[in-house]
Amino acid sequence: TSWGSAGTVGVALMGVAAGMDANLAAVAGAVVSGAYFGDKISPLSDSTNFAPVVAGTDLYSHIQHMLWTTLPAFILATTVFFFSGTSGVSSETPEKVVHILANLDQLFTLNIFLLLPPVIILWGAIRKLPTIPLMIAAIVVGIINAVAIQGFSLATALHAMLNGFNSSMFADAGLGNITVISDVMTLVNRGGLFSMMGMVLLVFCAFSFAGTLALTGGLKVMVGMLAKGIKGTASLIGATIATTFTVVCTTSDGKLALLIPSELLRDTYKRMGLDAKNLSRTIEDAGTVIEPLVPWTNAGVFMAATLGVSTLDYLPWAIQNYAGVIFAMILASLNIGIARLNNDAKEPVLKAATV
């Protein structure tokens, strides 16, 4: 999950970056890039499962085919971040980071049980168990850890679950005499159920707007215009990218951006002898991964609120996200990495460019 990655390790990395006086926009772009790279190649991701279903292919063929655009984008992103991140930086651990780690060690009892909540979620996802019971189980384990090991009261743990953690709560665990440095406050003062209410409201609004467009047929007319004039593979990939991006911008919803272009263009891909995994890859390149770069979408709002950096500020640094679209068009123009259907066996055959 891209959102879960950004909301956990991404938040921690942003706190460390603030302590190092690093470029927060660049770090946020790196977090978004990494989160969506993992999301695209994960068989546990909801969007990665949804795309092949609506396009008419299978999950693992979809993931393997996405590597044509995802891996080059990942290599480009890591190369840029490596050189920009190491330029003029000392190899020694920054003093601020040392202070942050020391302060965290004073305030928390770090132990192996802290890994149980994410392990429970991961195990349940692999076993395809119901989401809500898994989330409740992870929350219960977290509360037990807070009360039994960290020394917080049950009331404080429940309050943190609903309203988010605050550094003033350390007094409840008998740590009121320890000074909490500002960088650690930035790291730990967050979370809670109510912090997600604004994003949930936006999701409801997005679905209401999308439902209106779907019922009136206005969206199909609008994206159908973009699909005209398709004459070859490159123009078909370009039309798919354009329609997917249009749906993302008009509905603010990444799932509809996967569904609607697939419904419109699936038969076109088949008629042109192209395997459906070309369609599933392209709608992910232009839908799932582009969504966090649009400020008014669900993902854009979530990433900006979670990482504390506006969407337009981290956009230039989210190299993984927009590079996939660029490589998709390059490969389509060169006819590389395009899976075609064998007319006799109806099996996909990967066609590479002839030199």
TrEMBL record:
<keyword id="KW-1003">Cell membrane</keyword>
<feature type="domain" description="Na+/H+ antiporter NhaC-like C-terminal">
    <location>
        <begin position="34"/>
        <end position="332"/>
    </location>
</feature>
<feature type="signal peptide">
    <location>
        <begin position="1"/>
        <end position="19"/>
    </location>
</feature>
<keyword id="KW-0813">Transport</keyword>
<dbReference type="InterPro" id="IPR018461">
    <property type="entry name" value="Na/H_Antiport_NhaC-like_C"/>
</dbReference>
<keyword id="KW-1133">Transmembrane helix</keyword>
<comment type="similarity">
    <text>Belongs to the NhaC Na(+)/H(+) (TC 2.A.35) antiporter family.</text>
</comment>
<dbReference type="GO" id="GO:0005886">
    <property type="term" value="C:plasma membrane"/>
</dbReference>
<feature type="transmembrane region" description="Helical">
    <location>
        <begin position="322"/>
        <end position="341"/>
    </location>
</feature>
<feature type="transmembrane region" description="Helical">
    <location>
        <begin position="194"/>
        <end position="215"/>
    </location>
</feature>
<dbReference type="InterPro" id="IPR004770">
    <property type="entry name" value="Na/H_antiport_NhaC"/>
</dbReference>
<keyword id="KW-0472">Membrane</keyword>
<keyword id="KW-0812">Transmembrane</keyword>
<keyword id="KW-0732">Signal</keyword>
<feature type="transmembrane region" description="Helical">
    <location>
        <begin position="66"/>
        <end position="86"/>
    </location>
</feature>
<feature type="transmembrane region" description="Helical">
    <location>
        <begin position="132"/>
        <end position="158"/>
    </location>
</feature>
<dbReference type="GO" id="GO:0015297">
    <property type="term" value="F:antiporter activity"/>
</dbReference>
<feature type="transmembrane region" description="Helical">
    <location>
        <begin position="107"/>
        <end position="126"/>
    </location>
</feature>
<protein>
    <recommendedName>
        <fullName>Na+/H+ antiporter NhaC-like C-terminal domain-containing protein</fullName>
    </recommendedName>
</protein>
<dbReference type="InterPro" id="IPR052180">
    <property type="entry name" value="NhaC_Na-H+_Antiporter"/>
</dbReference>
<dbReference type="Pfam" id="PF03553">
    <property type="entry name" value="Na_H_antiporter"/>
</dbReference>
<feature type="transmembrane region" description="Helical">
    <location>
        <begin position="236"/>
        <end position="260"/>
    </location>
</feature>
<keyword id="KW-0050">Antiport</keyword>
